[in-house]
Design a protein that fits this description.
The chain is α/β, with parallel strands linked by helices and 427 residues long. 41% of the residues lie in helices and 8% in strands. The protein has 2 domains: 8-216, HUPs (Rossmann fold); 242-381, Tyrosyl-Transfer RNA Synthetase, CATH 1.10.240.10. The chain is globular and about 100 Å long. The chain starts with 7 loop residues before the first helix and ends in a 46-residue tail after the last helix.
Length: 427
């Protein structure tokens, strides 16, 4: 490992790359690359299974930090992984869902002002079906124990009573992706940690380099548990209208003074504050290596602050004067402390967060409404389970006139061709 000292610029880039993350494994790998003045390469992947929800704002916002630090970012649409994950997405739907995810991701990037031309988007099957990749997957299968494979996928692959072999293959393929996508570090949620440590253990045994792994915290669902695509009450869909957003936030678990498993509070910290800070920094020209950030952004790009907010405010909460007036926060920790000490009430927090979510979703939904192709892909990717199957059209009867001599052909026995009958010319 290089022992070169890091310049102030390299230190600043490393701070950008790792800020707000829950955990960093192998940070020295990234430091060494930056110290040598080289460009780190990263990949973030998503398996197109259930409908993507607003929890995706967390990693997608973080990608803006990577670009500001000059990182080359690859976005993997892991279509093969989606199929392997306990048949969450059958093969006949994977293609449509992959396209739907691509539409969503680009719409979110545009709404956040992240220049998509700097991203490399790759579909898993574009390289995972090659001879070389498959040979490596067999090499991996020859050294990985069933115990290690099962343990690696425990937090990511759906666990069932009688697990499929596909769930054991999944972690190995994700590890190999690091090599085949040419990355220096993989980024994902902290729920990926066991797969990340699996990759660190086994890739070197195939003769490949060990990569660094960066993890963001998982945002709790609205009910307090994990935010899940399969549970509509735990999450907000990117296409949920304002009325549904307000209804879901009103019903969300947000007990007064309770900061544990509080989905509304956690979303504010993981999404609302970072995006507001991103926009405030952009207004000051603080976009690092990404000079194109913000150009071509769609929708309102103003931070989540009120007009009377003092300098340094990142998030404001509107309140009537007789309830104490507006609240302004320079950090999420300050707001969390106020909620814990019951100086900030659940209703005020919910109203502010719902307003921020609606503001974030507006440009994404506008892009959806203006794109007929995306609408059709959405219909094919997530067909209505309650829709009645289309009735088959009745076969139209075709009139066959009798032969000129007035005799009718006898019906042929089943599975036997009709023999042609010689017909004398009419006089």
């Amino acid at each position: 490992m290089s022992t070169l000292p890091m310049s102030a610029e390299a230190e600043a880039k490393y701070e950008l790359i790792t800020r707000r993350l829950q955990e960093v494994l192998g940070g020295d790998i990234i430091k060494a690359i930056l110290a040598e003045g080289k460009t780190p390469k990263a990949y973030w992947g998503s398996a197109p299974t259930g409908r993507p929800h607003i929890g995706y704002f967390v990693p997608l916002t973080k990608i803006a930090d990577f670009l500001r630090a000059g990182v080359e970012v690859t976005v993997l649409l892991a279509d093969l992984h989606a199929f392997l994950d306990n048949m969450k997405a059958p093969l006949d739907l994977v293609k449509h869902r992959t396209k739907y995810y691509e539409f969503i991701l680009f719409a979110v990037f545009h709404s956040l002002g992240i220049p998509t031309e700097k991203l490399r988007v790759v579909e898993g099957t574009s390289y995972q079906l090659t001879k070389e990749y498959n040979l490596d997957s067999y090499r991996l299968a020859a050294i990985v124990t069933e115990h290690d494979a099962k343990k690696a996928g425990a937090e990511v692959v759906k666990q069932v009573e009688s697990p499929l072999l596909s769930g054991l293959i999944y972690p190995g393929l994700q590890a190999l992706d690091e090599q085949y996508l040419g990355c220096d570090f993989q980024f994902g949620g902290v729920d990926q940690r066991k797969i990340f440590t699996f990759a660190e253990q086994y890739l070197p045994r195939l003769g490949y380099a060990k990569r660094a792994h960066l993890m963001n915290a998982m945002v709790p669902g609205l009910g307090g548990g994990k935010m899940s695509s399969s549970d509509p009450n735990s999450k907000i869909d990117f296409l949920d209208p304002p009325s549904v957003v307000k209804k879901k936030i009103r019903a969300a678990f947000c007990e007064e003074g309770n900061i544990e498993e509080n989905g509304v509070l956690a979303f504010a910290g993981a999404v609302v504050f970072p995006i507001s800070q991103l926009r405030l920094e952009r207004l000051k020209g603080e976009t690092g290596s990404d000079k194109e950030e913000g150009k071509g952004a769609v929708g309102d790009q103003s931070p989540f602050t009120l007009e009377d907010a003092p300098e340094g405010t990142i998030f404001s909460i509107a309140r009537k004067e007789n309830y104490g007036g507006n609240l302004h926060y320079k950090s999420f920790k300050d707001m969390e402390d106020d909620f814990k000490e019951k100086r900030l009430y659940p209703k005020d927090l919910k109203d502010a967060v719902a307003g921020a979510i609606i503001k974030l979703l507006e440009p994404i939904q506008k892009q959806f409404e203006e794109n007929p192709e995306w609408k059709e892909v959405e219909r094919l990717a997530y067909p209505d389970p309650n829709a009645k199957p289309e009735k088959k059209k009745k076969k139209e009867k075709v009139y066959h006139p009798p032969p000129p001599d007035g005799t009718a052909l006898a019906p042929a026995p089943e599975n036997q061709a009709v023999e042609a009958k010689e017909v004398p010319p009419s006089s």
